[in-house]
Amino acid sequence: MWQSIKQWWERYSEKHPELSKFLMFFILSNGVTVLQILVMPLFRNIFARTALIDTDFQVWPVGTNVDGSPHFIFDYPAGPIVDGVGGGLAYFLAVQLAILIAQVINFFAQRNVTFKSNSSIWRAAFWYVIAYVLITLFAAAAQGFYKAPVYSFFMDSLGWGSAGETTADIITMIINSAISFWVFYPIFKVIFKQVPVDSDDQDAAAPAVEQTN
Question: What's phi and psi for 164, nearest 5 deg?
């Protein structure tokens, strides 16, 4: 069965190279999104049992909110999440660790499986890290607009309590992943290249074959 699927996919990839890359990118990206959804609440529950939850993490103020309070790129005031606000350093680390683990896996999976790149892995990793940092900053800034309403809706408006908090965790991870999905694909097409291999290099790499009379 798997052999038949593999053969079908190879034929499909030959006929539709760009579409097949996007589909594989989509599949792998959703896989790492599921991973983020699973590990983020786990990390948050672990860190919530430490003093990290009572540690403010509000950095890089940019403008003000509608109530006149400062708007932070990373806005995690100390204490449990109430009305969509809070979580402290514990929440920040849980989110970033989940994203980091998923993106490291995503880097190698997309490079080797989707784009089958043979270009410099170090050059690709360098640009990947830069893109990762920029996307993280953008996603964090965007979270300042939707995090509080999402958590407030599921925890308070629906009255789901801790179940609502977990649901909101999942929603925020999906939104973060959606942002990464649409930004990373064109970046991957640039940094994950297939470099033509010279025939001389191929000959040198090929094992010597002894001729028999």
Answer: -65, -35
